[in-house]
Amino acid sequence: MPFNALTFLLLFGPLALGLHALCVARRPVWRVPLLAGLSLAYYAWWDWRALPLLLASIGANWWVGEAYRHSGRGTLIALMLALDLGLLGLFKYLGFFAGLIDAATGAGFSAPDLVLPLGISFFTFQHIAYLVDLRRGTAPPMTLTDYALYVAFFPRVIAGPLVRAAEIQPQWQAHPPWADLAARGLLLFAAGLAKKVVLGDGLAAAIDPLWAGAGAGLAPEAAAQAVLGYAFQLYFDFSGYTDMALGLALMLGIRLPENFRAPYRAVSIQDFWRRWHITLSVFLRDYLYIPFGGSRHGLARQLGALLATMTLGGLWHGAGLTFVAWGAAHGIALGLHVLWRRAGLALPPLAGWVATFAFVVLAWVPFRAPDFATALAVYRGLLGLGGGTAGAAPDFWPLAALAGALALAGPTAHDLTARLRLSGPLAAATALLLAALLLQVGNDANQAFIYAQF
Predict the structure, then answer these.
(1) Burial of residue 160, with CB atoms counted within 10 A of its CB: 0-12 exposed, 13-18 middle, 19 or more buried
(2) Exposed, middle or buried by CB within 10 Å (0-12, 13-18, 19+), for 74?
């Protein structure tokens, strides 16, 4: 039940918001249990088969956290972290590593085909963040209901943004200005829906046939459309989802952290990762890069930490060597950025933007391609070496021009919720009108979100 499905827009979403408003007005003490119950119901609606695993992981991690708080035994946390990562590896990577072993040995090694539980990468990272922060003394104590809501809060359980307990748990007991937040949240939700349905899905319709036939070769213009179109499709699909998640949370009185800050305006690769999937970047920095040594133990250690962090970040996105290659490419680029800065060199902002944008867009090719052969075919097509005859999508460029203009100069989620000053009724009316129009434009707006698969 994605946010852009009619079932959510017309049934679950309004029901959840109505029950929450009634609870806040009549029985505020029931707010956390209600939100936790709604979140588990939402997850079960997506895939009820994975609900027992989510519930078991919530119970086990909370119990270990409580045991650590009372005993101070770090071994408990270490064992629980190993179990969390082991379950993630079992469901997400068992087949991947089995394939690598079989390719290396030719022994016919195989693994059972397990169904990937929805959102397992995100809720596993939530568990890790809580337990590590608890050991560091920065996570607040939580009841089991609090912890269940922290992990499974329905606006963000499927695809983030990632949050820390210390930044979200205090908001459950606060009393924010509901009417103002609801109006702003509804406007932000509608804006995210527009980004997803009009631009994300519109670009997908134009370029998906190109990617499907990329293995047979693409003409240069078709290859350019496939590459540039996917860069914008992914951005508007994922940032659109995030805007909808942030908007929903605001309507429930919760401020989730910003996850995108105009990433295609970045003037360096480091700047890009401060703008793209910000909460994941912070997670990778705090829970991988710094523990690997960061910049505290010399240049060689720093370069190795960057490469290892980003390679693992690529693997987190998907169980495939193409994702590993994408992550490693970004790790190498970040390492070169460090060397460039240490040498005292600098590019003018325009040149930095061109270089960064070109690298990021080209690096998305293995991220999107099902295999290296397809990625190579796309690169060859860009150079005019593909020998392909696949025609370009006729309606692509006007949509791409609109996408580019909005990505490079359009408002961010922060702009919409903080700088744009609309009265509550006007914001709500605008959002409702836009949502109604989007249902028509988007053909019921029922396309899946890209990041739901991760």
Answers:
(1) buried
(2) exposed
* 3-class DSSP assignment, residue 158: coil
Q: At what angle do helices 31-47 and 51-71 cross, to 10 degrees?
A: 140
Q: What share of the chain is helix, strand, coil (3-state, %, to 5)?
A: 75, 0, 25
Q: Are residues 128 and 108 in the same domain?
A: yes
**pTM listed for this prediction:** 0.92
Choose the final residue of a domain: 141, 159, 174. Answer: 174
> Does 317 map to a domain?
no
Give Rg (Cα) of the chain: 23
**Angstrom distance (rounded) from CA 122 to CA 107:** 34
Same-domain check for residues 355 and 249: yes
- Do 246 and 381 lie in a common domain? yes
Which DSSP category does 9 fall into?
I
Does one domain contain both 256 and 405? yes
Q: How many angstroms separate the CA atoms of 191 and 333, rounded? A: 33
Cβ-proximal residues to 106 (8 Å cutoff; 6+ apart), any chain: none
Structure tokens at 207: 């370029």
The residue that leads in pLDDT, 175 or 320, is: 320
pLDDT at 423 exceeding the cut of 70: no
What is the percent of the chain where pLDDT is above 90? 58
Domain assignment of residue 414, yes or no: yes
Whether residues 140 and 224 share a domain: the answer is no
The confidence score (pLDDT) of residue 297 equals: 86
- Alpha carbon distance 235, 121 (integer Å): 20
Same domain, 169 and 186: no
Answer whether residue 279 is part of any domain: no
Residues 138 and 192 reside in one and the same domain: no
- The range of the structural domain enclosing residue 414 comes to 180-267+347-447
CA distance linking residue 238 with residue 275, whole number of Å: 13
Alpha-carbon gap, residue 373 to 269, rounded angstroms: 26
Question: H-helix or E-strand containing 394?
Answer: none
Chosen domain end from 139, 174, 209 = 174
The catalytic residues are 317
Q: Is 238 helix (H, G, I), strand (E, B) or coil?
A: helix
The reply to whether 135 and 13 lie within a common domain is yes
Distances (CA, A) of 290 to 132, 198, 281, 285: 13, 40, 12, 6
Q: Which tokens hold the place of 13? A: 């979403």
